[in-house]
Write a structure and sequence with these properties.
Strand content: under 5%
Helix content: over 70%
Order of helices and strands: HHHHHH
Distance between the termini: 34 Å
Shape: elongated
Structural class: mainly alpha
Number of strands: 0
Radius of gyration: 21 Å
């Protein structure tokens, strides 16, 4: 984007990106319902966190689809919203974990492990679909980061289930929820930084208005 008198390169996603987003959207909506029910049945904070994350990802995919054909600046603004959403999600998870720690509730580990594995299969499928788009603009990168973080979180939920089963306490579940919340916050900050860079690049490459009164005398 070196030339300031021409429009920025659009860095438009490949033709398969839109289709991958639609598939990812439906997978995430289905898993939100499954994990939401499972978190209610088991009392697991990490499952609850993952269910909220699935819902947030679904909303983010809708947002990405709505700006997919727009310019780099608009896709950067969409990524900024998604980055902020990821960071807020992480904070909510931390607050929920603190509340459960004070209440003394212990989750049911078998449901945690089984649903965590199902969610892992779903997220690995989505991550593999989106892997080749990870080096695109900030909007495409944010979609990839969401899928990557989800897969990591699912493995952590299964580890937490083993920990709860072995110790009979909620602390493994709460520890994993805390890690997931931290990962969401740091990834959200990363996406927002990338989004600011895309927006600045689009602005600097846009045609500059000619000032009045600059003609020769």
């Amino acid at each position: 984007m070196a030339c300031s008198c021409s429009p920025p390169e659009s860095n438009s996603p490949g033709p398969g990106f839109r289709r991958a987003l639609w598939i990812a959207l439906w997978i995430n909506l289905a898993m939100f319902l499954v994990e939401g029910w499972a978190s209610f049945q088991s009392g697991s904070v990490s499952l609850m966190a993952d269910a909220i994350d699935f819902f947030g990802d679904s909303a983010n995919y809708v947002l990405s689809l709505s700006v997919l054909s727009m310019g780099l600046a608009w896709r950067g603004r969409a990524a900024m919203i998604k980055g902020l959403t990821m960071a807020v999600f992480g904070l909510v998870v931390w607050l929920r974990a603190i509340w459960v720690a004070q209440s003394g509730l212990t989750p049911e580990p078998l449901t945690m492990g089984a649903v965590g594995f199902l969610a892992l299969v779903a997220n690995v499928t989505v991550a593999l679909m989106l892997f080749r788009f990870r080096s695109g603009d900030s909007d495409m990168r944010s979609v990839w980061l969401c899928s990557r973080n989800d897969a990591i979180g699912n493995v952590a939920v299964m580890v937490a289930a083993l920990g709860v089963f072995g110790t009979g306490t909620a602390w493994p579940d709460l520890a994993v929820a805390g890690i997931m919340g931290t990962l969401a916050m740091t990834s959200g900050i990363s996406v927002m930084r990338h989004a600011r860079s895309d927006i600045a690049a689009a602005r600097s490459a846009s045609p500059q208005p000619v000032s009045a009164g600059t003609g020769s005398h």
